Amino acid sequence: MRKGFLILSAVSVLLSTQSYANQKVCVFDLLGKAGESYKLMEEWSLASRAWGAQVQLLAYQDESKVDKDFKDGLCDAFYMTSMRARAYNKFAGSIDAIGGVPNNEIAQKAISYVLDKRNAKRLVTNAGKDSYEVAGIGQIGSAYIFVRDKNINTLEKAEGKKFAVLHYDYAQKVMVNRVGAVPVMSEISNFIRKFNQGEVEIVAAPAYAFKPLELHKGLGTKGAMVNFPVVNVTADLVIRSSKFPDQFSEQSRLWFVKQLPKSFAMVKRMEAEIPAKYKMNLSKEDRVKYQKILRDGRMDLTRQGIYDSTMMTVLKKARCTIERTNFECSVSGE
């Protein structure tokens, strides 16, 4: 009897393991397997074995293909920018709200807060038969505005200029329209190329893209990087809950939080590598003007349901904890 029980137990464990084996995780990285995002996910996949998974990573340089393959069931999980992943979880995806996270210190606080166990329920989205869960958030870095002509140094001078925006992020289109620029619908795989080839005059991108995508070509001798972060870019790991073991997401989120110091150190290094000759600082007056227009746009987009209102409140508290003298800390809203 005991021998039979042991055999049944062994078979049960084997079947349980097999049911959670070989999860396919589609990973977007502009640089494919050579990129830092993919390398982070390689470390994660090794760690995930201890949580009962046997992950197979699939590298993509086309984010739209990741989204399509996940919807078609070819991926059990994905890792891609929060701007696109927001469709699967608005709470986590709203960290990337325009102007919501103006520096790395606030970004680290925001990501740590979202991944905290108190928000576990907010990170689950039920859609028909599917249940999606955010199992991690990685930092890519602040996006800065790059211009082909440094004379475009005020909001007024951006009027009528072509600005590359990611077509699936409604927020970008709204903000570009607000400053009177002309939004040019683009994909994450080609928006820098359009800038470098002169098809657009303005683009927003993180330091992560500067060197590998040769942004210096678009800047030439007349261009500049406006040294004012407009969006904090993160990436979300979203899984189909049914394809992974119980407690997997919780352990995965803890792992991502532990990686944050290393991720932010990488971002700071990349920002420091951008030559000083390209960096253009705004006057204090213009900085406040930028903050106000971003705030107005962010609040409008929240009212429209694009951003999560709870996350907007959290981000404002974080900003005002770090920068107590900021004008917005003495006014209501968010």
UniProtKB/TrEMBL annotation:
Keywords, comma-separated and alphabetical: Signal
Stretch forming the signal peptide: 1-21
The keyword Ubl conjugation is assigned to this record: no
Xref: Pfam families: AdeT1_2
Parts of the chain that traverse the membrane: none
Name this protein carries in UniProt: RND transporter
Organism: Acinetobacter gandensis
